[in-house]
């Protein structure tokens, strides 16, 4: 007796033959745990499998049409040029037609095809994923989230109960797919999450109230980000469940960062987070970031094993269970501050170190501007705003100290990127490290005066950097700097 799954498989093969005639050549088939995609040289045709799962119901043609249309609508927020239309499949399973007269027996989403290997997971595996790709995507995600609709104050999305249920659902769904030894590892991870639930519940509630729950992507792993048409863009967001799409903004960022780690690109993961946090200023959310990353790693492990259970051809993939375990055992936090005149290389050193060692960075140039509602690259002087008064400096260092405290409490290594030319500024952060019981270090950066002057002038002329230091600022620093001492 033929099942809906059998009929779907026959329909896909018939459509494959039909599209091959149109295209004049072979049509590739790509399969996920919930969809099949037929690839012609120029286009992609995506059909949803007739499944009823705990998180999605595609069991009827009407449901598949609805979710194809939702997929088109929602993904045009990210990649309007990539998503074309939804087409009815008419005729019969054995002799289908795309569009035309007659009752639709199924529905397909039609997209433009991008070159094979341009997805970020493929670029990461080949070593072709560049730091610029990650920076551009971090900026794009931050902009998208800033403009995304906020969940209503009385919405259940992103509340402690809803988030806890979603995470518990992944543990429950994954457990039967593991062998005994893996199941023991999963139980340890669940205990790690459960032990933090009371504190997380308070954080999730506060973030919901503060407007951090928005309509996002929901499935932001590397295979769903592509370098295409001179841009980097997300695609293939969650269309089948508002619960999985209306989420904390950091839950989307965590997915992308986690998958960089899982693909062996931890340095790029930290670079992504640095750029993303610089844009969003969401350092207050760091305490939920690691739990979100662990949850996202388990989502990917679950998706891969569900695909295996459906009999899909074996595919190499990262060990997401091991990735989750590594995230649950981070190194000891520590606090580092930079020290040096403008142009001495502090930000360059901090950027390299945060990628190599894995750290959160706070930049005085950025946070000073944020206090005045200015973007990182804005020219405060051109807008007639003096952001370098003694009071502004005091408030900037207070903001840096509170941000560092938040990151340390969340268990992260922290680099505070500022000149720290006055002893009282350095002492305040050394006291913070002592209070938190973490190691404290000063990264001293030095260059000769001619090189300092050259770097400062070049940076001001080139633009594209948050620092507004010029030669007058450099001269004033040289006159007033208080040197480091042994204590």
What does this structure look like?
The chain has 487 residues and is an alpha+beta fold. The chain folds into three domains: 4-112; 120-153 and 170-237 and 247-327, Aminoglycoside 3'-phosphotransferase, Chain: A, domain 2 (Alpha-Beta Complex), CATH 3.90.1200; 335-480, Rossmann fold. 51% of the residues lie in helices and 14% in strands. The strands form five sheets. It has a six-stranded antiparallel beta sheet with strand order 1-2-3-8-6-7, sandwiched between helices. The chain is elongated, with a radius of gyration of 26 Å. The model has no long low-confidence stretch (mean pLDDT 95).
Q: Which features characterize this protein?
A:
487 residues; alpha+beta; Aminoglycoside 3'-phosphotransferase, Chain: A, domain 2; AAA family ATPase; 3 domains; 4-stranded parallel sheet; Rossmann fold; elongated; 51% helix
Spatial gap, N to C terminus: 82 Å
Q: At the third CATH level, what is the topology name of the largest domain?
A: Aminoglycoside 3'-phosphotransferase, Chain: A, domain 2
Radius of gyration: 26 Å
Report the top-level CATH class of the largest domain: Alpha Beta
InterPro entries: Cell-binding_unc_protein (IPR052732), Kinase-like_dom_sf (IPR011009), P-loop_NTPase (IPR027417)
Organism: Paenacidovorax monticola
Protein name: AAA family ATPase
């Amino acid at each position: 007796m033929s099942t809906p799954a059998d009929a779907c498989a026959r329909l896909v093969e018939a459509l494959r033959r039909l599209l091959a005639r149109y295209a004049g050549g072979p049509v590739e088939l790509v399969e996920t745990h919930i969809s099949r995609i037929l690839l012609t040289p120029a286009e992609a045709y995506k059909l949803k499998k007739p499944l009823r799962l705990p998180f999605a119901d595609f069991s009827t043609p009407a449901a598949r049409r609805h979710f194809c249309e939702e997929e088109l609508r929602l993904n045009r927020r990210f990649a309007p040029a990539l998503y074309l239309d939804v087409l009815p499949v008419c005729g019969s399973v054995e002799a289908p037609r795309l569009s035309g007269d007659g009752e639709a027996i199924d529905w397909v989403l039609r997209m433009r095809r991008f070159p094979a290997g341009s997805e970020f997971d493929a670029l990461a595996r080949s070593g072709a994923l560049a730091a610029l790709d990650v920076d551009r995507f971090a900026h794009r995600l931050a902009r998208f989230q800033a403009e995304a609709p906020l969940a209503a104050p009385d919405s259940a999305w992103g509340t402690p109960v809803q988030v806890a249920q979603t995470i518990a659902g992944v543990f429950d769904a994954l457990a039967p797919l593991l062998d005994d030894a893996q199941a023991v590892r999963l139980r340890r991870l669940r205990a790690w999450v459960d032990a933090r639930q009371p504190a997380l519940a308070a954080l999730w509630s506060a973030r919901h109230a503060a407007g951090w729950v928005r309509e996002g992507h929901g499935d932001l792993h590397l295979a769903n980000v592509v370098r295409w048409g001179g841009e980097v863009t997300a695609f293939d967001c969650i269309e089948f469940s508002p619960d999985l799409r209306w989420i904390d903004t950091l839950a989307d960022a965590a997915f992308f960062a986690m998958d960089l780690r899982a693909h062996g690109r931890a340095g790029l993961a930290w670079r992504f987070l640095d750029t993303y946090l610089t844009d969003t200023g969401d350092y207050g959310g760091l305490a939920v970031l690691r739990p979100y990353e662990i949850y996202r790693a388990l989502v990917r492990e679950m998706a891969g094993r569900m695909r295996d259970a459906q009999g899909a051809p074996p595919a190499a993939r990262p060990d997401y269970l091991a990735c989750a375990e590594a995230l649950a055992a981070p190194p000891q936090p520590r606090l580092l501050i930079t020290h040096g005149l403008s142009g001495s290389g502090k930000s360059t050193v901090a950027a390299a170190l945060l990628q190599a060692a894995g750290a959160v960075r706070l930049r005085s140039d950025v946070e000073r501007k944020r206090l005045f509602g200015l973007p990182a690259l804005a020219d405060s002087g051109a807008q007639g705003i003096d952001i370098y008064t003694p009071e502004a400096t005091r408030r900037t260092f207070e903001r840096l100290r509170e941000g560092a405290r938040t990151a340390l409490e969340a268990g992260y290594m922290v680099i505070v990127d500022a000149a720290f030319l006055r002893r009282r500024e350095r002492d305040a952060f050394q006291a913070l490290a002592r209070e938190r019981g973490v190691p404290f270090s000063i990264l001293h950066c030095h260059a000769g005066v001619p090189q300092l002057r050259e770097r400062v002038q070049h940076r001001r002329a080139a633009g594209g950097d948050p620092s507004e230091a010029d030669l007058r600022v450099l001269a004033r620093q040289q006159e007033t700097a208080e040197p480091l001492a042994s204590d």
